[in-house]
Specification:
The complex is a heterodimer of chains A (about 425) and B (about 250).
Chain A lengths: L2 H16 L39 E6 L8 E7 L3 H8 L11 H10 L2 E7 L13 E8 L4 E2 L2 E6 L4 E8 L11 E10 L4 E8 L6 E10 L4 E9 L3 E10 L5 E11 L2 E10 L5 E10 L4 E10 L6 E11 L5 E10 L4 E10 L3 H9 L4 H20 L9 H6 L2 H15 L5
Parallel strand pairs in A: 3-6, 4-7, 5-8, 6-8, 7-9, 8-10, 9-11, 10-12, 11-13, 12-14, 13-15, 14-16, 15-17, 16-18, 17-19
Antiparallel strand pairs in A: 1-4, 2-3
Helix pairs in contact in A: 1-3, 4-5, 5-7
Chain B lengths: L7 E10 L2 E11 L4 E6 L5 H9 L4 E10 L2 E2 L5 H6 L2 E4 L6 E5 H15 L7 H14 L10 E2 L5 H15 L3 E5 L7 H16 L3 E5 L3 H7 L3 E6 L2 E6 L1 H18 L1
Parallel strand pairs in B: 3-10, 3-11, 6-9, 9-10
Antiparallel strand pairs in B: 1-2, 1-4, 4-5, 7-8, 11-12
Classes of the chains: A alpha/beta (about 425), B alpha/beta (about 250).
Chain lengths: ~425, ~250
């Protein structure tokens, strides 16, 4: 047996021995994930038809416009080939025993391909002189059940803008996708990453994405997520701020529609002058189920650490189920921490103001929702820490069209809780 | 509509807010291009008239009628009243977080233009005219690129209302204490804009307590509202009298 096969069997064995995600798990009890079998090879698709299997290209890496992409080194690696698997998983931590570890083991068992991207600084230039590297990373599913892997490393002083999109061609029949994706982001000293993630699965898809980020001294990581709901959709980010002065910002725009969406952001501040900011704006229709978990731990010795958590939920109609959970664990005295959660409706005064200027109800609601969404994303990727990543994407119309779709759905849905 | 019939015709309007009747019976006629000043003590119902005409859901019309030209205003939802040509400036214009001012106004303008059978205005043409109007009103161009009213001072909010008024060019505008929070240049801008739009046929109802501005506006009539009814109608002399003696005295003398 080769080492790749042995690694897969070890992962399967671990899952058999330790079982799946516990229904009592604090992070998962509000939206428990589908059973283990649905995330493994051989899981039955939801429907059977003669349509070709999902045959996307997996990860593709593209430059953006005329922006430079110097210093980028990318390797697509086959996880069934022993040497490539060793390279792919080299220096990645084992999934361990945490509450989400079963997803990690299931990923090890199923992963067939991965991409490692390394961005190096341009030699001879200081951190301030490094031009930002723009990358567009597209992912198209290759199979109905899959476990893609991405490892992104930014070397010291590198500035990078990463637009990560998950694109799903409509299947000829309504086969649901099961995707257990893990991404590891490593920022070396002084590296800066602006990361826009757009994840819009099909209604029947089961999605679980895990981003594991580690930040060295003075590294800055800003992740803005725009996601839509599906039959099961989990977005979990774990950020470890290990070096002094490291900063992480996270914004989650959760457009749950009439489905489910669970965002979990876990941050650990383990050094002085570290900063963490987590914001979520969840919008749901009457039958939506949304969970937003922000958990931040400030470790001992984190002098002058600063934490901000703000979770907001807005019901577009009816009484959707929204669980907003800001949570702090503070093990040091000299820190600043602010957190809060609010739940409500669209602001009536602003809606009437727009109507009084001639906008019909749908247009007024769409304009105000889009405004709130833009404001959230702009606070995260505000351009002060790098180039303007948002405007070109917003101009593409995805947000406008998605909000319009949600409002149409809200108008059609019966307003039950 | 004949030339003699008023643009706005309100008859026996009765409006409840919550459990309370605020407007008991209001009737008034406003011809095209004319300007009425509405005065009254706090709580007399001035703002309620504006909100009720605009169709605010918290202001419930329980009796009476209101026509704008041929249109039965009270039978229309708020946005159709606006598209029919009614503009109500807010005493405290709200923030619209994240929505850029120029996008908000252009979206509103194109909704109104569509209702008038006109082509939508593209972003370039709109921005050019918006900048020009903003300059004339003393509103910095940067305000066009900021979220609507967010972080605006009181005077900037009112100037932003004027900017929308100047671009939307309604048939009837009700300005609710447009002068409050304005400096002298702002008040001058109000007077100049109102005169310009009146010359084009826009009619105005101006709610104000500020005599100097009222005099400069050269109103066709001044109305005093008291306990939800029009208690007195007169010329600018009525406003001067109220300024001298106050509303309580004016009510006794009436």
């Amino acid at each position: 047996m080769d080492s790749a096969r042995a690694d897969i069997l070890a992962a399967e064995s671990h899952l058999q021995a330790h079982g799946w995600v516990s229904r009592r798990s604090e992070a998962f009890r509000h939206l428990p994930p589908p059973a283990l079998a649905q995330w493994l090879e051989g899981a039955s698709p939801d429907a059977h038809c003669g349509a070709p299997v999902l045959s996307g290209t997996g990860w593709t890496l593209n430059p953006v416009g005329n922006a430079p992409a110097t210093g980028v080194h990318a390797r697509w690696l086959d996880a069934l080939e022993p040497a490539q698997r060793a390279e792919l998983f080299a220096d990645l931590p084992a999934p361990g025993e945490g509450d989400a570890a079963p997803f990690g083991w299931a990923h090890r068992a199923l992963c067939r391909q991965g991409l490692r991207v390394r961005v190096s600084a341009v030699p001879g230039k200081s951190a301030n002189e490094q031009a930002p590297v723009w990358l567009h990373l597209r992912h198209q599913p290759r199979a109905a059940v899959e476990a893609p892997l991405l490892v992104l490393e930014l070397h010291e002083g590198v500035r990078c803008v990463l637009i990560e999109t998950h694109e799903r061609e409509p299947a000829q029949c309504d086969v649901g996708l099961a995707q257990n994706l893990h991404a590891h982001v490593r920022l070396a000293r002084g590296a800066r990453l602006q990361h826009l993630r757009v994840v819009a699965p099909g209604e029947r898809d089961r999605i679980a994405h895990f981003v594991h980020a580690t930040l060295a001294q003075d590294a800055h990581y800003a992740q803005a997520l725009a996601a839509t709901g599906s039959s099961y959709h989990l977005q979990r980010t774990q950020v470890q701020l290990q070096g002094a002065g490291a900063q992480a910002r996270s914004a989650g725009l959760l457009l749950t529609g009439a489905h489910t969406l669970d965002q979990q952001v876990f941050s650990r501040l383990d050094a002085a002058r570290t900063r963490s900011q987590v914001e979520v704006l969840a919008l749901g229709n009457a039958s939506a189920r949304t969970v937003a978990n922000a958990y931040t731990r400030i470790g001992a010795g984190s002098d002058d650490a600063s934490v901000h958590q703000r979770l907001s939920g807005i019901a577009l109609d009816g009484e959707p189920r929204m669980v907003l959970r800001p949570h702090l664990e503070i093990l040091h005295d000299q820190v600043q921490a602010v957190h809060g959660a609010t739940w409500g409706r669209l602001p009536e005064d602003a809606l009437f103001y727009a109507r009084q200027r001639g906008l019909d109800d749908t247009a007024a609601r769409a304009l105000i929702i889009e405004g709130m969404a833009r404001a959230l994303l702009e606070r995260c990727l505000d351009g002060s820490d790098g180039p303007d990543v948002l405007t070109p994407w917003l101009d593409g119309g995805w947000l406008t069209q998605t909000i319009a779709g949600h409002l149409t759905l809200a108008a059609q849905e019966p307003t039950h809780g | 509509m004949t030339s003699s019939s008023p643009l706005l015709q309100v008859r026996d309007l009765r409006v409840d807010v919550g459990e309370r009747t605020v407007l008991r019976s209001v009737s008034l006629d406003v011809p095209a291009g004319s300007l009425m000043v509405l005065m009254g003590a706090n709580g007399s119902g001035k703002s309620t008239l504006g909100m009720a005409l605009a169709g605010h859901p918290n202001y419930r019309v329980v009796a009476g009628s209101a026509r704008l030209g041929d249109v039965d205003l009270l039978g229309l939802p708020a946005h159709e009243r606006a598209r029919a040509g009614l503009f109500v400036s807010f005493q405290s214009p709200p923030d619209v977080p994240g929505v850029k001012n120029n996008l908000f106004i252009r979206t509103a303008l194109n909704a109104v233009r569509e209702a008038r059978g006109l082509e939508p205005q593209d972003a370039f043409d709109f921005l050019s005219s918006a900048k020009q109007e903003a300059r004339a009103l003393g509103l910095g161009e940067a305000m066009l690129g900021r979220p609507v009213n967010e972080g605006f001072s009181g005077g900037e909010r009112k100037r932003n209302e004027l900017l929308q008024l100047s671009l939307l060019q309604p048939r009837l505008a009700l300005l609710d204490e447009i002068d409050s929070g304005m400096d002298v240049d702002g008040v001058r801008a109000v007077v100049e804009l109102v005169a310009r739009l009146r010359a084009k046929g826009t009619a105005f109802i101006v709610i104000s307590h500020y005599l100097q501005m009222i005099e400069q506006l050269q109103p066709d009539a001044v109305l005093r509202l008291d306990q939800g009814c029009i208690a007195e109608t007169g010329s600018v002399e009525l406003a001067r009298g109220i300024a001298r003696t106050g509303f309580a005295r004016a009510a006794v003398e009436a």
